[in-house]
Amino acid sequence: MRSRYFPKFTSEDGSTLAEVCIAIVVMTIVVIGGFQFVSVGRERLAVEKYYRLALMEAASRLESARKYSYDALSDSLSETNTSITLGNITAKRTTIVSSIDDNFDGTGASDADTNPADYKKIRVTVSWPPDHSVSLENYQSEYYYEISY
Predict the structure, then answer these.
(1) Helix/strand/coil percentages in the chain, nearest 5
(2) Is 14 strand, coil or helix?
(3) pLDDT given for residue 67 in this prediction
(4) Which of 28-42, 64-78, 79-93 has the lowest mean pLDDT?
(5) Please, are residues 99 and 120 in contact by the beta-carbon 8 Å criterion?
């Protein structure tokens, strides 16, 4: 018994060559897109991993500034392109300590406290290949003191 909803199509029993070619092209585009998604995702995860490791390294370096006296910061902490290891790659760490003169008490020789360097800026930059870097900076005053509990 023939159903009126599903008539028998006798003229189109199989797929034509054009339909098969279009299906292959569509599947190829989907597969290439999937591979591209996976490879870019893996690359971004690796960059994020090294970014977090570099951030921890820079924060650790800034934290180590607390063990130096204010006068010894420039001599003890400054470094240029020191090799460090981030996971399984080699990175470079640069620490720059610069003196800052605050305008609040005058500038230069006319300072109220006769000290042109009111505080120091500590900037730590960690860079890794090919072209990635993280920078953190901190300001430290001569009058900084640590509270112990």
Answers:
(1) 40, 25, 30
(2) coil
(3) 81
(4) 64-78
(5) yes
